[in-house]
Amino acid sequence: EKLMDAINYQEYIFPQNYCKLRCLENHDQPRAAALIPEEDRLRSWTAFSYFVRGTTLLYAGQEVCSTRQPSLFDRDTVDWNTGRDLTPLMRKLYAIKKRLPVTGAFHLDTQNGVVCASYKLPGETAVGVFPLDGHPGACPVPLSDGEYRDELAGAAVQVQAGSISVGTEPVILL
Fold it and tell me: The whole model's pTM is what?
């Protein structure tokens, strides 16, 4: 929750058109796949890192869920044969990111380990729902009741009474 509060705070202290560099992992910390071994949670954190305002940075091997922390000072190649591959997800997220109304107001809400992120412009809203703790449940969303399309799964999502039912996978509604 502290991370979400800090991101919301940045919306108030940074200039309106800021573009921050965002990363899920870097050379100073253990790899994301080592900290988040559950596939669905790692997919949610990856989707969240793409959805939040700013430019998404990837660290060598992140796309294949590498758990080994590479050396910064020696030649250290990526093991591409980990048996895991987030590249298809990252391709979808990249295409979605280009369609986000990033000049709009951005806000995060957290409830029971599920983060709802939204961009709002007059007549346009984009919503991302990220079960970062890996638990399904209901999540309030800033959308009118009706049927929407999850841009990640391609499935229909029903908003009822201002809320959606979310499983363990991220959901992005444009």
Answer: 0.94
